[in-house]
Amino acid sequence: MKSSVITFPGSNCDRDMDVALKKFGFKNKMVWHADAELPKSDLVVLPGGFSYGDYLRCGSMASKSKIMQSVINFANSGGLVMGICNGFQILVETGLVPGVLLRNKYLEFICKNVFVKINDKQNKYFKNVNNDVLEFHIAHNEGNYFCTNDQLKKIEDNNQIAINYCDENGNIEDQFNPNGSIKNIAGIFNKEKNVLGMMPHPERMIDTSLSGEDGSIFFKNLIKNLK
Amino acid sequence: MKISVIITLKKDVLDPQGKVIHQTLDGMGFDDVNEVRQGKYFEIDTKETDNDKAKAIVEEMCKKLLANLVIENYKIIDPK
Fold first, then answer.
1. pTM more than 0.90
2. Of chain B's two ends, which shows fewer C-beta atoms within 10 Å, N or C?
3. What number of C-beta contacts closer than 8 Å exist between A and B?
4. C-alpha A181 chain-centroid distance
């Protein structure tokens, strides 16, 4: 399976993602944002970081970079595109997934492990994952998911919520919402579910000597689903 | 020609920064404030000399980059 990770000026999780993808069997290529052409890929990842210093709105400049037109075309033709953290912010700015990411409710940068409950398994990303709850890591200042009521209705009608913040037993409640996101939303799909944006970082949970291994479950399963 | 743009958050969008500014003003003794909403201001110096054309270009900029219309409104201020 071939993957591509896009590096924008200010990306800082691109190499972590490269390590994670390779560890679980992807042949990964790093792609510079100013390139026009996307290498042949089964999966494209927009990594975390602070593209363009988060100027104007997080992800807004990166969403207009040269490579993104190819990424958008790839997504619109059914290709798998996953945006993590800043990558999620870039995805919402392209309009590939609905909504926006606002400043965290309590104005603090949050860096900690969280639990997320998988809301939908009828997709390439979470199909066949045995667990319902995964422990991932978040590190962001603007992860407060917001959308209009009309958008929320469509998202819910199409079952586009991918994961919600919860406790270790999968209870989705206000007290387990780290950033003020509507409905504890931590990640969402586009309507076709080939595009996934999420704030948590699975690539930071692939080694017991770091912080945990639930990311391994995610990546092992993902490559199996793509084969 | 210089054109100014003001971007504001839509009414229903939470503005935690505005809230904190409000609280701080309150603490400083400005206790008759109802609400504070924070926004953005841009000055764009364009080569276009025709007023209407310049405004139309800036409007396109607002829609495509300067504002995110899910959460923000923009207002173009007439050049003097």
1. yes
2. C
3. 32
4. 15
